[in-house]
Amino acid sequence: MTVQPIAGVSPPDSLEVTIMTVWPSVAATSVGRWLGRLYSIRFGIGPFSLGRLALVPSIPLVLPLYLSMRLPWAIQRYRLTNRRVIIECGINPRVEQFVDLNRFDAIDIDVRLGQAWYPAGDLVFRRGAIETLRLAGVRRPESFRQVCLKVRQSYVSVAQAIGATIGAA
Question: What architecture (CATH level 2) is domain 18-168?
Answer without folding.
Answer: Roll (2.30)
